[in-house]
Amino acid sequence: MKTRSPQPLLTGLMWAQHGTTPKLRHTCEQGDGVGPYGWEFHDGLSFGRQHIQDGALRLTTEFVKRPGGQHGGDWSWRVTVEPQASGTSALPLVSLFFYVVTDGKEVLVPEVEAKGQLKFISGHSSELGDFRFTLLAPTSPGNTTPKYGSYNVFWSSNPGLPLLTEMVKSRLNGWFQHRPPGASPERYLGLPGSLKWEDRGPSGQGQGQGQFLIQQVTVKVPFSVELVFESGSAQAGGNQALGQLAGSLLTQALESHAEAFRERFEKTFQLQKKGLSPEEQALGQAALSGLLGGIGYFYGQGLVLPDMKVEGSEQKVAPALFPPVPLFTAVPSRSFFPRGFLWDEGFHQLLVQRWDPRLTREALGHWLGLLNADGWIGREQVLGDEARVRVPPEFLVQRAAHANPPTLLLPVAHMLEGNDPADLAFLRRAFPRLHAWFSWLHQSQAGPVPLSYRWRGRDSALPTLLNPKTLPSGLDDYPRASHPSATERHLDLRCWVALGARVLVQLAEQLGEAEAVAELGPLAASLGAEEILDELHWAPELGVFADFGNHTKAVHLKPRPPHGLVRVVGRPHPRLQYVDALGYVSLFPLLLRLLDPHSSRLGPLLDVLADSRHLWSPFGLRSLAASSPFYGQRNSEHDPPYWRGAVWLNVNYLALGALHHYGHLKGPHQARAAKLHSELRANVVGNVLRQYQATGFLWEQYSDRDGRGMGCRPFQGWTSLVLLAMAEDY
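The structure corresponding to this sequence follows.
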């Protein structure tokens, strides 16, 4: 838990099971063997319940906030540790480590009882006023029977968030004994600290760099422990009379919040009313809760390489630190991508805004706050030390010439349909930034001929790469022209710009921005004209829409010792032509609903979409046709396929929305689109549910061959859109 501020007061939990090889658990890591874990409930604001499976242990962490006072009110956490299986004979000894970290300005004072035990921690900060943390004595789960606990404390200067785990690990010492009355003592790893200030840093630095205070409680499983935060102003304002938010009061508060969550969930998504099974409803609740529980507040400086305006110019410029900025955003994955990603966030907010439109306005406002003077927003936001240590060095620097799909316009379009006065007031304030962002995209990514567009920032044609990647597109290794050049025309980018122009014109009309309507209206009309789209991107020889560029299909990776796999280009030699790479990109005019329901191009796109030799699989639409020479191919020796066949939820959600759209519009393809919608929805939802039941996780992508979850997990970013697919809310 932390305050939403540049210098937060932060509290957290570590735990360890004592025994042969104790592992200290703290941050979510992809390969740590913990899991499944995730939020059963999270309302995005004041309540959550999470389950974590760690070997033989099952932890439940739950919190509730109680408003009051001028500083955000009180909150309490309960952590319950139980054996995974009932009837476990040897019950393990487990330590919970509750810590508080400050960033410099706050004061923390441990209050000690006569026996030297910590009674509570009182503190003060400018943002929170006076506050107090109390760690209550352990009890049996579900009742007030006390359990014997051994206590350790440690208090020192804050080494910085990335170093907390190591600091605790390095100080744990095996000479402590847990001695419950009438039972034989057991050794455990404990923190050999005291409540003297242990400043190991340079003298006098302690107060300036913040404090780290940790309380360790060691108890025999099963047990519950509660940590209570009380705000001075909330207590004075009436919360004191309500009693401490602990014990049976906390149980009642948690239960009433869980009940309120279930009711609001059904009212919002109506899964029960639509006849979805209890298992599907539970998946939907976990999908929403995991996304809301992953929302974070980040603050720091991003590294940016300025746009030199001339592509390929040899001028060497060092990346610059941008001024510090805040970002309130959802994240794709707590374990692997715990930071903001621009094109992911547009999809995240489609779901968040159905639940809590206020949260979406806050997140979009923060993202638009990242706009630079040119109208650019970086596609990956690595803000602050904690985010930086999780990112490989090659991804730290954002390039101010590179774009990303403008998916934030998807929730904006949804706001325009809704007519909520608060949304419209927000859009009025946001319009200048949305307009600047769109104008930057339209101008900076212009293609070689009018009304064509090209993603800047494709990888260079290195001898080790089968097909140089196009990271800015979001579809990383999706095959493009084999030989990158300035002659390329990218279909997906053109469709994104067409969607952007359409949304901006609708917004400008609604706000009465006559000048913007006059400027953007003709552009939107030209980008919406099917004959121009046809001229630039319809490939008669392929029978679908396609990219255009300097291309040959005759490329392969061949082993060439000692260099490893090396790209070999055969015949025919590359020439300017449409790129034969049937997959998600080919469908973009359909996905973004840019085609008229009577369009002659709609039928052929539905044909390839529905053909199991191409894009249709029993688990959803493949990212690349099974008939493509690039299908399932590595891009280099160390780079497995990513967007080369696997099923991705964000694009399947767009496809479902498009099929639903055309299934409700009069036209020659209406019945077929409606039928494909219901079949695709059953395939996608059914597979995500099966994988969730088998593994306990939502996954980054799914295999088109057997449906199994792949990539990182939990991936409760855009895979959470499975809930909107179940609700048929597009």
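Residues 199-207 have pLDDT under 50 and may be disordered.
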